[in-house]
Amino acid sequence: MPIFFDVYWFVACTLTSSCSDAFPLVYRILVLVFVLLVVGIIVWIIVSNWQRIELTVTIIAVASDALSRNLGLFLVIPLLTVGLVIYYAPIVVFLVFARFNGKIVAKESNGEYTCVWKQDSWVPAYYTLAILTMLWSLTAMVEAQVYVISGTIAQWYFSKDDSKPKRSTRSSLRNAFGPSSGTVCLSGLLICAVRLVRAAVDSAREEDVPGIVNLVLRCCVNALLSAIDFLNKFTINFAAITGEAYCTSARMTYELLKRNLLSAVFVETVSTRLLAGVIFVLSSVYAIVVCAILHGVSDLGVNAYIVAVLAWVLLIIVLGFFVHVLDNVIDTVYICYAIDRDRGEVYKQEVHEVYVHLPISRNSRSSFPTRTFGV
């Protein structure tokens, strides 16, 4: 696509007198060569890392197979989102009506008196509490979705036969909003706190406060927040698999990731970037096709581009949802494989045949506590 648009622009600008007058031939050739050079560098990066890409595609294929055996997740996850919206409805209504709590008071300005509306003193505090509650509920619901996905996939992984366990999604939902609700809420609280602190750090960076101490503090805070984000992500997966409490899952997950840190980073970053690239390419191609069809069969004019952009955004949202679920499945299968490997067992041979090619850390000593994990 970049090569096509680059050549198309070069030819169109050469044939158009106004464009050719504004951009001399030398500048057009420089732009053409520069874009081709950038594309060449990208192709070289892809070719030099082709083995990693092939491994990532295979990992995605394994995760897709696991997801295909648990298609009920595509119904449960949107229903959880709908439930969150319903939960938000009374909070928003109370926020609207909270504005009407107050009284009319007289205000003097330059010897003239005017009537103004003064809200009660508790209204700003209620607004703050309600907004923080909504943010915490949002992150908790996201963690609950991850818990349900991980619990469902783990039950499929640790089943002895190839058949899907009965009521696996229902049991994961019952655990997420029952015995493990505290774990889910605590995880959501940590994620909410991390997001708020990161937003404050980004706001301070925009203010451009000078000083080396401020720069060092920002770097330390960002590193700490990234570490909490990374550890918490796999902690909720581990808690969904084992049913352990949050702190116990965090400690045991740390021991697990300490031996497989390179593998975890590889699974998380490469697969996510590859899936994001696939989403962008498919959405762009779809938008171009929609725009071409609208120009061919209708006279919408400029509105055709608006419809194409809307189609592009809509497809990105839909595919983003699928990728969000698939990304959590990839993490869950990786954690299940690590537990399997630590216990010296093989529940899913096809998973071991793929994940055994992942790079592992140098510290291969077994420091993970040996125990029987239940789902």
Notes on the structure:
It comes from Theobroma cacao (Cacao). There is one protein chain. With 375 residues, this protein is mainly alpha-helical. The protein has 2 domains: 1-48; 49-355, no CATH class. Helix content is 78%, strand content 4%. It contains 13 helices and 2 strands. The chain has a two-stranded antiparallel ribbon with strand order 1-2. Helix 6 packs across helix 12. The chain is globular and about 70 Å long. Residues 362-375 have low confidence and may be disordered.
What's the helix-strand series?
HHHHHEEHHHHHHHH
Characterize the main sheet: 2 strands, antiparallel
Number of helices: 13
Major sheet: arrangement of strands:
1-2
GO biological process, one term: transmembrane transport
Membrane topology: Multi-pass membrane protein
Transmembrane segments: 25-47, 73-97, 126-157, 274-298, 304-326
Keywords: Membrane, Transmembrane, Transmembrane helix
Outline of this structure?
By secondary structure, this protein is mostly helical. Helices cover 78% and strands 4% of the residues. The protein has 13 helices and two strands; from the N terminus they run αααααββαααααααα.
Task: Note the topology.
Blueprint: H1 2-15, H2 17-22, H3 25-48, H4 50-68, H5 73-98, E1 102-109, E2 112-119, H6 122-157, H7 168-176, H8 181-207, H9 212-242, H10 246-259, H11 261-297, H12 302-343, H13 349-355
Helix pairs in contact: 1-3, 4-11, 4-12, 4-13, 5-6, 6-7, 6-8, 6-9, 6-12, 8-9, 9-10, 9-12, 11-12
Structural features:
375 residues, mainly alpha, 2 domains, two-stranded antiparallel sheet, 2 strands, globular, transmembrane transporter activity, transmembrane, Choline_transptr-like, Choline transporter-like protein, transmembrane helix
